[in-house]
Amino acid sequence: MAGRLLLVCRLLVRDLRRRPIETILLVVAISAATGTLTLGLALNDVADRPYERTRAATAGPDVVARPHTTGQRALAALAPLTTSAGVTGHSGPYPVAFLVMTAHGRTVHTVVEGRDTAPARVDRPVVTEGTWVRPGGVVVERAFADALGVRAGDEVGVDGRRLRVLGTAVTTARPTYPYAGWIDPDSALVERGGLVWVHRADIATLAGARPLSYTLNLELADPDAGAAFVDSATTLHAGELSTWQGIAEQDGRLVADAREALLVGSWLLAALSIAGVTGVVAGRVVGRRRRVGLLKAVGAGPAMVAVVHLAEYLVIGLAAAGIGLAAGLLAAPALIRPSAGLLGVVDTRPPALSTVVAAVSLAVVIATAATLVPVVRAAFASTIHALADAATPPRRRRWRVRLSRRLPVTLLIGIRVNARRPRRARLVTVNTLITTTVLVAVLMNHAQDEPFDLGYTDLVDPRAERTDQALLVLTVVLGVLALLNAVVTTWTAVLDARRPLAVARTLGATPAQAGLGLGVAQLLPAIPGVAAGIPVGLGLYTIVGPGELRYPPDSWLLATALGVLLVGAALTAVPAMVAARRPVADALGSTPA
Asked: Locate the ABC3 transporter permease C-terminal domain: which residues (predicted)?
């Protein structure tokens, strides 16, 4: 047993050292899929950790109560909650008005909350720029200020009255912009808006004839018992009771779409990685047929041969899982930043066990799925056939031969090259199918871009910003991986077709016809992949996309399809023409007969 293990290890190290470029390609392909999956899974931490830090720094409430009434009836509805069982502290009630604010020519829905200059026991917003409230000024929630381009010292209009911006602050008593919860007094619908604070003495003047509502912040003996408290307090309070967990979930919605896009993209990248790894592995296994024969000749069985091959790819897969895991965890806070309404940068913590297991499992699945078929075929190959290392004769069909004889020379060469290696042609189809699917899904996402309505002004949608960031990451990673797959497939096809092209040239084909024939061999299987990728991409976005959808113009889809085919043709053209101009004698002499 020890001797066999030593043999496996020595062959593994030897293969990794002798084929560094192919090993790097395998690591890149698997790392791309595991890194994207890790990035998607890590987005929960990207949203949760800054919220936890902000909640601790601002003495965030455990439950926030907002009555459905106004004036004295609202105060009467909130009064019983301060003495309810389980409540250990509170702040407020604070007066609230639902007004509009004008800044830099934009008028937006604004929740205006009246506060005292002295800090409260529960919900102490942290000032990130400038100072806290005082008469005659306004403090703007930081994410809202960023969206409007407002800074300390600017002037804004709150319901027509000019106020100086004293500073910006963050809180966890309300969801961050744009989900502060703006309500029209004549409607029960909650609309998008931002939050500002003014001095308690100013809010009645700002509200004018509009009735004031109120908000109450509660601290519980058990912060995790918010849901139970809400259930028990429903009979005492005719209004909305929000737990800190619910507010945290609303803040997390900013990255929800981005996370879903990355998770779906990671599975598409996994399929693309399997296609790419399969192409590399097939070439490596074919190149080792003589070694398989030698192993069998000295007594190794099919299981031993399979272990020798699989061990290398499992080691590569595990190494790629580590690289992808590290890359995804490091990229998450940098690429998908938390809301500006929360404090600080994501702190460094060990990844969740579920994230590590998912990344490693995906890497192992990719390595195993891509290598299993060629490895099993090699393990059960005939010893004599493996030692001879002879090329596998093509499967001929009479109807194919009769049909191909009537085709132009270029098309004939392309079809016959694919007929000799049908599995490689299918890999080209898969590569273009997945590439086109993702590109069409990105076009669908851009077609959904619409102004973000905040009452009177259109602002940037922060959820759309983060989804665009995630799709940009996914598109770049997929583009690199698809190009690597295309290069590997093309170069493998060039090496494998040297002798058939040389034979075709001895029978009268020109170097140009031979080169174009090899290019056709790569483009023919790409066409069905592109044709199927367009409806698959549209359907995929329809399944995961929210609400009513708009479709991109046909010209966008046509340009995408032609672009994918043109890039494939460009990648094929240079190596194909180089191979076609090689002297016939050299090509025939360098290939086993």
From this structure: 265-380, 473-581
